[in-house]
């Protein structure tokens, strides 16, 4: 090797040895907030995963061997030839597994509201952990956004999974359900567990809890208000569900009104055209003699999705307003430093 080549090689080696070492990877504030949220609330994450996992396992079993066993027991019992009979343990186990999925989705908003008010927000404000995070190059607004976005992603994934499995069971059990006349679509738990409403209410519980925690800044009061507030809002909306879509009405000359679906009101029409509800009466005409026809207001099964989508829109609007109010409250509490 020539002297010139040797010198060039040494120069290159020296230059390489003098290169600065690569900078270590720096975790961005967003990633740090996400990791911190998972780490601090890992017990809640495990509880949610266990709840969703148990309910999902029960629904999968119900959609497969559980339904097959219940149907076989029904056929074997000869219920088609009798007015009344009991299927036995097979159907009881199947019904328990199906109910587990609906119950999990019904209770989820209350549990989420209590957890968000008490642990997610209230405890961190009470202990000063939130203020410490705000001094570590994390703005209050970004902190709150992470507190909302991370749980919301986990909640939506779980509720959507259970909703899809509930619909799978509903489709699978159609023959048995119609034969036995069980589980009407308008029952509260069934209605919520087979569409978008369950996810919307779960997010509403999160928003109520977060706002309660920011407002009270203490864990136990935040937990209580998150639980009660979610229950009151959800109960109010669900009790007025039948008002969210126009009802169908049938009119008959006799009191034998034949409707299929959720009955909203029934009664009779007088000779003057007045509609009188007879729901609270002991007889169809409430002791009056001026009834000329009888009516029934009801929601048929075709109203399932209209009712569902309208209620979902209302719940998500309330959720968005609560989130907006939470950011406004945080901005006021931190003096506009967001």
TrEMBL record:
It comes from the Bacteria. It comes from Streptomyces akebiae. Residues 1-15 have a biased composition (Low complexity). The chain crosses the membrane at residues 45-64, 100-122, 143-165, 185-212, 219-237, 304-327. This is ABC transporter permease. Keywords: Membrane, Transmembrane, Transmembrane helix. Residues 1-23 are annotated as: Disordered.
């Amino acid at each position: 090797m020539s002297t010139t080549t040797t010198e060039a090689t040494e120069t290159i080696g020296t230059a390489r040895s003098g290169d600065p070492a690569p900078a270590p990877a720096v975790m961005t504030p967003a990633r740090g907030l996400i990791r911190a949220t998972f780490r601090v609330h890992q017990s809640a994450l495990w509880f949610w995963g266990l709840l969703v996992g148990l309910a999902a396992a029960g629904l999968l079993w119900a959609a497969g061997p559980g339904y097959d066993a219940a149907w076989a027991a029904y056929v074997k019992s000869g219920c088609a030839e009798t007015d009344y009979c009991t299927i036995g343990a097979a159907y009881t186990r199947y019904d328990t597994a199906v109910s587990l999925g609906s119950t999990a989705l019904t209770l989820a908003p209350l549990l989420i509201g209590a957890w968000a008010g008490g642990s997610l927000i209230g405890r961190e404000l009470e202990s000063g952990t939130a203020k410490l995070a705000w001094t570590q190059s994390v703005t209050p607004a970004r902190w709150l956004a992470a507190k909302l976005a991370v749980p919301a992603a986990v909640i939506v994934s779980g509720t959507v999974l259970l909703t899809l499995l509930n619909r799978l069971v509903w489709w699978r059990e159609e023959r048995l359900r119609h034969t036995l006349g069980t589980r009407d679509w308008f029952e509260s738990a069934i209605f919520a567990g087979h569409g978008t409403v369950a996810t919307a209410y779960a997010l509403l519980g999160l928003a109520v809890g977060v706002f309660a925690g920011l407002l009270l800044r203490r864990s136990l009061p935040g937990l209580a208000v998150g639980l009660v507030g979610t229950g009151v809002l959800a109960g109010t909306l669900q009790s007025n569900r039948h008002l969210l879509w126009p009802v169908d009405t049938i009119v008959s000359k006799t009191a034998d009104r034949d409707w299929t679906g959720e009955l909203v009101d029934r009664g009779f029409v007088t000779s003057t055209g007045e509609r009188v509800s007879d729901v609270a009466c002991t007889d169809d005409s409430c002791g009056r003699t001026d009834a000329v026809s009888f009516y029934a207001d009801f929601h048929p099964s075709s109203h399932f999705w209209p009712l569902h989508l309208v209620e979902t829109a209302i719940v998500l609007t309330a959720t968005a307003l609560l989130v907006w109010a939470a950011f406004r409250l945080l901005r006021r509490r931190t003096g506009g430093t967001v």
